[in-house]
C-alpha cells in the first residue's frame, strides 16, 4: 500500500507539472493573440492616424490615449463564472466618421469577458475597414442571442453579431489570405475563443461581417450518491470528464491505492491458502471427495488469473462464467457430501467461493457477485428444505445453517464495503487533485500571460509608448510635421512587430528605422503566426542593413509551416559586398537546408529553410 501510494504521489506530481506546463503554453498563446490584436487594432491604427495630415487633433489624441490604455492593461485570464453583457459593449461602439451607425441589440447577451473582448475587437476592426475602404454612408450592427436558426436564445450566452455597410464592396476573391486586419483581427480573434467569423461582400452591394459564438458543451456530472449505488458513474464527463476525475469505480480505486492488484492479493491470497489447507485435510479424511479438491484447484487458478487482470478490467462474460463455475461447484459438492456436513468444516466448498466473489464485488458491478452469492444461498436452502433432516427441529436446523450461509456472505459484504469506501476516498482524492492541478494550470497561465505582455511591452515601451502618451496628453502636437514623420516610422516598426512577433530586438528596430529615414522602403511580411527563427531573421536584417550604402528597398518574407520557416530576403539594388557578407553570415549560422544567396546588378537575395523555434 505504501509503495502504491508513493507511485501515485509521483504520478500526481507529474500530472500537476504537465498541466502547469500546458497552462503556461496556453497562457502564452492567448497573450500573444491578444497582444497581436491590440498592436493592430489600437497601436498601429493610432500611429497611422497621427502620421496622416488633416485628421482632427481631438481624434488623434483620443486614439493615442486609447492605445496607451490598451498597452498598459494587464491581460485578464478567462473566468468560469464572470460574465460581460455584450449588448452594452456593442452599444458603446462608435460610428466611422461620415457614416450613420444603427445598433440593434435586443436584451442582454451574457458571455465570458474574453469572448466579449474578442467580439468587440473584431467589430471595431470591421468598423475601421468601413472607414478606410468601404466609402459607406450607413452601417448597421445587429446583435442576436443564439445562432441564426435560434433567434432570441440569449440566456445560454450564444450570439450572432453582424456588421453590415452599404459601401462599394469587393469580390470575394480579393480578400487576401495575408490580410492582417480581417485575418488576424477578425477571423483569428473569434477562432481563438471558439467562435466563427465570416465575411460576405460583392462589388456594389456592401459588406457584411458575421461573428458567431456559442459556449462549449459541458459534460454531465453524476451524483455521488448514484455512484455509490451503481458502482460505476461518471464524474465530470466521458472518460473522466473535463476535470480529469476517473469515471469508473476501478479508476477511483486506482486514484486511492495505485495498482489495485496488490491490495486485492493481500485480501484474497491468504484466504485461498488457508482454504486450500482445509480442503486438503478434509479431502484426506472424507472418502470420495477427491473431485472437490480438483475443483478447488481450478477455482484457485481462476481467482488468481482474474486477480492479475483486475488492473485492466475483467470482461462481463468472463466474470459471469467464473461465478457460474464457483456456485455450481459449491452446490454440486453436496452430491458427495452429506447435508449434515454444514455443521462443520466438512462443507468447506460453501466458503471456498468467498475470495472469487470478494474480488468480483470490488472490481465488477456489485450486482454480479451479489447475484452469485444469492444463488448459492438459495440453492443451499432448497437442498436443506428438500433433503433429509440435518437437525431434530427447524430452530436447530437454522442454527446449523446460518453459520454456513454467513461464511461467504460476510466476506463478500465486507469486500463490498471496503471497495466502496476505497473508491469513494479515491474519488475525493482524484477530484481534489484535479482541482489542485486546474488551479496550478490557471495560475501558470495567468503568470505566462503577464510575463509575455510585460516582456513585449518593455520592448515597445522604450519609444512607442512614451510617444503615444505624449501625443495623447497634448505634450506633442499631432499636426507637427516632425511628429507625423516620427509616427510614420513607429507605425512601420509596429507593422514589423505584427508580422514577426518577438523577433526584432532594439538593435534591429533601430537599423530598420534608420533605413526608413534614409529613404529605404522596408517591407516585412509573414503568412502565419507560427513561431519564427528569431536569431536567423535578426542575422539577415542586421547583415543586410549594416553594409553601406543604404539599399533602395528591402523585402523580407517568411512562410512558416510544419516546423520549418522559409525566409526570403530581397535587397534592391544588388551589391557584391552585401551579398558576400550575407553569404558568410548564413554559412556561419548553419542555417539548414536549401540555402541560396545570389547577387546581380538589380538585386541581392537570400532564401533559406530554417527550423522554426
Give a written overview of the molecule.
The longest helix is centred in the last third of the chain and has 68 residues, at 394-461. Helix 13 packs antiparallel against helix 14 (394-461). The protein has helices at 2-51, 57-72, 86-91, 113-134, 180-192, 224-230, 249-257, 261-285, 290-309, 316-332, 348-352, 354-363, 366-386, 394-461, 464-473, 481-499, 506-517, 534-546, 576-589; strands at 84-85, 100-105, 110-111, 138-145, 159-165, 196-201, 207-213, 521-526, 553-561, 564-572, 593-599, 604-611. The model is unreliable at 147-155 and 218-245 (pLDDT under 50). With 613 residues, it is α+β, with helices and mostly antiparallel strands. Pfam families: HATPase_c. Residues 233-243 have a biased composition (Gly residues).
Tag the structure with descriptive keywords.
Histidine kinase/HSP90-like ATPase domain-containing protein, 613 residues, transferase, 3 domains, alpha+beta, 12 strands, two-component regulatory system, 13% strand, HATPase_C_sf, Heat Shock Protein 90, 5-stranded mixed β-sheet
- C-alpha Rg (nearest Å): 38 Å
- Say what oligomer this is: single chain
Major sheet size, sense and barrel closure? 5 strands, mixed
Strand content: 5-15%
Residue-averaged pLDDT? 78
SS-derived structural category: alpha+beta
Unreliable residue stretches: 147-155, 218-245
Could you tell me how far the N terminus lies from the C terminus, measured between alpha carbons in angstroms?
45 Å
InterPro entries: HATPase_C_sf, HATPase_dom, Sensor_HK_TwoCompSys
Protein name: Histidine kinase/HSP90-like ATPase domain-containing protein
GO biological process, one term: phosphorelay signal transduction system
Keywords: Kinase, Membrane, Transferase, Transmembrane, Transmembrane helix, Two-component regulatory system
Amino acid at each position: 500500500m505504501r509503495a502504491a501510494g508513493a507511485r501515485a504521489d509521483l504520478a500526481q506530481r507529474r500530472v500537476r507539472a504537465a498541466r502547469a506546463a500546458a497552462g503556461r503554453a496556453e497562457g502564452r498563446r492567448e497573450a500573444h493573440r491578444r497582444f497581436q490584436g491590440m498592436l493592430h487594432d489600437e497601436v498601429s491604427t493610432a500611429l497611422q492616424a497621427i502620421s496622416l495630415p488633416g485628421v482632427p487633433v481631438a481624434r488623434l489624441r483620443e486614439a493615442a490615449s486609447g492605445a496607451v490604455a490598451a498597452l498598459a492593461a494587464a491581460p485578464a485570464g478567462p473566468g468560469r463564472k464572470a460574465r460581460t453583457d455584450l449588448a452594452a459593449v456593442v452599444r458603446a461602439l462608435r460610428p466611422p466618421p461620415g457614416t450613420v451607425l444603427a445598433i440593434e441589440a435586443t436584451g442582454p447577451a451574457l458571455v465570458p469577458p474574453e469572448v466579449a473582448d474578442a467580439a468587440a475587437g473584431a467589430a471595431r476592426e470591421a468598423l475601421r475597414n468601413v472607414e478606410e475602404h468601404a466609402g459607406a454612408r450607413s452601417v448597421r450592427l445587429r446583435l442576436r442571442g443564439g445562432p441564426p436558426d435560434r433567434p432570441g436564445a440569449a440566456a445560454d450566452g450564444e450570439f450572432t453579431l453582424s456588421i453590415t455597410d452599404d459601401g462599394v464592396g469587393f469580390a470575394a476573391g480579393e480578400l487576401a489570405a495575408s490580410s492582417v486586419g480581417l485575418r488576424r483581427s477578425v477571423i483569428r480573434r473569434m477562432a481563438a475563443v471558439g467562435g466563427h467569423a465570416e465575411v460576405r461582400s460583392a462589388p456594389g452591394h456592401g459588406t457584411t461581417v458575421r461573428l458567431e459564438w456559442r459556449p462549449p458543451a459541458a459534460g454531465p456530472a453524476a451524483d455521488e450518491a448514484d455512484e455509490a449505488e451503481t458502482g460505476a458513474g461518471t464524474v465530470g464527463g466521458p472518460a473522466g470528464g473535463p476535470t480529469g476525475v476517473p469515471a469508473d469505480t476501478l479508476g477511483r480505486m486506482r486514484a486511492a491505492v495505485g495498482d489495485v492488484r496488490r491490495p486485492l492479493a493481500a485480501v484474497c491470497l491468504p484466504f485461498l491458502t488457508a482454504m486450500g489447507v482445509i480442503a486438503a485435510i478434509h479431502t484426506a479424511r472424507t472418502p470420495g471427495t477427491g473431485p472437490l479438491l480438483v475443483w478447488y484447484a481450478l477455482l484457485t487458478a481462476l481467482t488468481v488469473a482474474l486477480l492479475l487482470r483486475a488492473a485492466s478490467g475483467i470482461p462481463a462474460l468472463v466474470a459471469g462464467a467464473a461465478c457460474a463455475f464457483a456456485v455450481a461447484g459449491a452446490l454440486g459438492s453436496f452430491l458427495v457430501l452429506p447435508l449434515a456436513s454444514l455443521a462443520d468444516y466438512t462443507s468447506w466448498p460453501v466458503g471456498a467461493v468467498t475470495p472469487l466473489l470478494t474480488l468480483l464485488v470490488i472490481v465488477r458491478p456489485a450486482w454480479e457477485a451479489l447475484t452469485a452469492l444469492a444463488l448459492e444461498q438459495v440453492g443451499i436452502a432448497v437442498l436443506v428444505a428438500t433433503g433429509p433432516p440435518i437437525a431434530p427441529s427447524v430452530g436447530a436446523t437454522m442454527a446449523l445453517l446460518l453459520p454456513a450461509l454467513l461464511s461467504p456472505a460476510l466476506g463478500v459484504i465486507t469486500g463490498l464495503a471496503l471497495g466502496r469506501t476505497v473508491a469513494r476516498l479515491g474519488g475525493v482524492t482524484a477530484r481534489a487533485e484535479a482541482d489542485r492541478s486546474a488551479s496550478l494550470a490557471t495560475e501558470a497561465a495567468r503568470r505566462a500571460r503577464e510575463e509575455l505582455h510585460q516582456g513585449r511591452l518593455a520592448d515597445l515601451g522604450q519609444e512607442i509608448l512614451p510617444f503615444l502618451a505624449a501625443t495623447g496628453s497634448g505634450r506633442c502636437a499631432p499636426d507637427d510635421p516632425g511628429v507625423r514623420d516620427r509616427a510614420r516610422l513607429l507605425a512601420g516598426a509596429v507593422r514589423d512587430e505584427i508580422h514577426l512577433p518577438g523577433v526584432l530586438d532594439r538593435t534591429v528596430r533601430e537599423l530598420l528605422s534608420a533605413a526608413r529615414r534614409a529613404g529605404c522602403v522596408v517591407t516585412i511580411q509573414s503568412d502565419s503566426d507560427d513561431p519564427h527563427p528569431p536569431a536567423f531573421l535578426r542575422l539577415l536584417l542586421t547583415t543586410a542593413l549594416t553594409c553601406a550604402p543604404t539599399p533602395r528597398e528591402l523585402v523580407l518574407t517568411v512562410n512558416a509551416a510544419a516546423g520549418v520557416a522559409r525566409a526570403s530576403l530581397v535587397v534592391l539594388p544588388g551589391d557584391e559586398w552585401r551579398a558576400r557578407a550575407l553569404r558568410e553570415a548564413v554559412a556561419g549560422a548553419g542555417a539548414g537546408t536549401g540555402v541560396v544567396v545570389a547577387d546581380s546588378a538589380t538585386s541581392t537575395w537570400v532564401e533559406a529553410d530554417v527550423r522554426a523555434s
